[in-house]
């Protein structure tokens, strides 16, 4: 019989966390002795939605087109996140699995709203303004009537974007989907560890609590597979998307653009944009609207970098970011952190911002920086397709989708990654 796969992506879990996780009962029962990659090089920027799209497609952001969590509009309006599948330009593992005749499921996997090839779907999506309801939001983002029956069991207790309440909703729904539908591939994304790090810093007891919660959820999902009579042929995979770094300050680079005449701000409101900087946490994107000023903007940003006091360590053109990091988009420049500064989009003084725990980019720890910095993501897998005891020191995040697809018996052509045959049984 064909093997199955549960992919649990524990947002912001890193190799440093494994010392604790390896001692916990469910990891020891379901993953100990399997295959692993000790550190995974993620994509640039190290942000959840670009990374999860690279995990699912096996290609970098310059090809799949998701360069941040949100969709950028130059107008001063609230920006929606990249919730919907249509915002991904590349073919992902769900579609290839469906073409291979597999049953697919996704629970809070980013950028999957209204995905036509996910049979059992609960997208990471939340209510949009006053009057919207959680039920309506899930239906609008592609949850079928059958899966809404599962959602209805838990939705009253869901508090959106609050951890671990939201994550318990995710795991409860995913476990019921496994138990009742036994999909061949299910990919699940809780974000409790990520949330705790944003709020409290990189390593502390709250983060340890999140690691223990992750172990509980791993056990809950595996017991659901056991209830479905499928655990013995299920590959259990634990991965993560990025790490985090602690930040000491947030700098409002748009204030500096205004000082140089590239932005006009009156009473705290932008009235004219020749250039604008969008925050990616510990990176930032500069958009130049007055193309005649592009060289002047680049020279000014380079001057800020060389001053060494504004948190900028590198200024890359769009062409350089594409060539060096496989990041491309409609921006003109990318600004990289010095390792302890995040970037705010504020336009009024003071130049620095306080921590803002309601904005992941400005918490006590965050991400978005170049992928070789800081603690690194991991990959652990055990099941009929994976060699027990196989280890790799390092792989790239784009290697995951082609490896998972091969483990399930089909291939994904034209990915940027490779199949990690060292981890797989023949």
Task: Provide a descriptive summary of the structure in words.
The protein is of the alpha/beta class. The protein contains 14 helices and 19 strands. The protein has two domains: 293 residues, 3-Layer(aba) Sandwich (Alkaline Phosphatase, subunit A), CATH 3.40.720.10; 116 residues, Domain 2, Phosphonoacetate Hydrolase (Gyrase A, domain 2), CATH 3.30.1360. An eight-stranded mixed sheet has the order 4-3-5-1-6-18-2-19, sandwiched between helices. Strands 11-12-14-13 form a four-stranded antiparallel sheet. The radius of gyration is 21 Å and the shape is globular.
Helix content: 25-40%
Helix vs. strand class: alpha/beta
Major sheet description? 8 strands, mixed
Strand content: 15-25%
Q: How many β-strand runs?
A: 19
Q: Biggest sheet, strands in spatial order? A: 4-3-5-1-6-18-2-19
Query: How many domains?
Result: 2
- Number of DSSP helices? 14
CATH class of the largest domain: Alpha Beta
CATH superfamily of the largest domain: Alkaline Phosphatase, subunit A
CATH architecture of the largest domain: 3-Layer(aba) Sandwich
Rg, Å, rounded: 21 Å
CATH-defined topology of the largest domain: Alkaline Phosphatase, subunit A
Pick out its properties.
31% helix; Gyrase A, domain 2; 8-stranded mixed beta sheet; Alkaline Phosphatase, subunit A; 4-stranded antiparallel beta sheet; alpha/beta; globular; 426 residues
Please sum up the structure shown:
The chain has helices at residues 18-21, 25-30, 48-57, 61-64, 93-99, 134-140, 145-154, 165-181, 192-200, 205-227, 253-259, 294-307, 318-325, 400-407, and strands at residues 4-9, 35-41, 104-107, 120-122, 185-188, 234-239, 245-246, 249-252, 263-266, 269-273, 275-279, 283-288, 312-317, 333-337, 341-344, 352-353, 365-366, 379-382, 391-396. With 426 residues, it is an alpha/beta fold. The relative contact order is 0.21.
């Amino acid at each position: 019989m064909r093997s199955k796969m549960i992919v649990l992506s524990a947002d912001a879990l890193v190799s440093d966390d494994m010392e604790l996780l390896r001692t916990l009962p469910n990891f020891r029962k379901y993953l100990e002795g399997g295959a692993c990659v000790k550190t995974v090089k993620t994509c640039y920027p190290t942000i959840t939605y670009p990374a999860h799209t690279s995990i699912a497609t096996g290609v970098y952001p310059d090809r799949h087109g998701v360069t941040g969590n949100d969709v950028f509009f130059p107008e001063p309006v609230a920006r929606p996140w990249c919730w919907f599948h249509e915002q991904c330009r590349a073919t992902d593992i769900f579609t290839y699995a469906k073409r291979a005749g597999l049953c697919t499921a996704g629970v809070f996997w980013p950028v999957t709203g209204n995905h036509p090839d996910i049979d059992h779907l609960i997208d990471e999506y939340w209510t949009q303004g006053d009057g919207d309801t959680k039920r309506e939001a899930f239906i609008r983002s592609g949850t079928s009537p059958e899966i809404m029956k599962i959602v209805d069991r838990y939705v009253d207790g869901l508090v959106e974007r609050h951890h671990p309440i939201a994550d318990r909703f995710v795991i409860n729904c995913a476990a019921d989907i496994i138990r009742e539908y036994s999909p061949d591939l299910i990919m699940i994304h809780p974000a409790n560890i990520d949330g705790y790090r944003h709020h409290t810093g990189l390593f502390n007891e709250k983060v340890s609590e999140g690691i223990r919660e992750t172990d509980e959820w791993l056990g809950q999902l595996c017991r659901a597979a056991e209830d479905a009579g499928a655990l013995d042929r299920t590959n259990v995979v634990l991965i993560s998307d990025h790490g985090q770094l602690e930040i000491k300050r947030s700098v409002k680079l748009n204030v500096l653009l205004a000082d140089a005449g590239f932005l006009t701000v009156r009473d705290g409101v932008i009235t004219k944009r020749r250039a604008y900087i969008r925050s990616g946490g510990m990176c930032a994107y500069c958009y130049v609207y007055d193309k005649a000023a592009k060289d002047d903007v680049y020279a000014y940003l380079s001057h800020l970098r060389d001053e060494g006091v504004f948190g900028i360590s590198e200024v890359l053109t769009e062409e350089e970011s594409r060539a060096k990091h496989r990041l491309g988009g409609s921006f003109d420049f990318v600004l990289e952190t010095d390792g302890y500064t995040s970037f705010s989009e504020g336009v009024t003084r003071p130049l620095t911002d306080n921590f803002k725990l309601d904005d992941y980019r400005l918490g006590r720890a965050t991400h978005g920086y170049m992928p070789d910095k800081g603690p690194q993501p991991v990959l652990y897998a055990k099941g009929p397709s994976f060699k027990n005891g196989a280890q790799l020191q390092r792989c790239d995040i784009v290697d995951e989708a082609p490896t998972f697809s091969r483990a399930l018996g089909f291939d994904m052509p034209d990915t940027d990654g490779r199949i990690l045959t060292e981890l797989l049984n023949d």
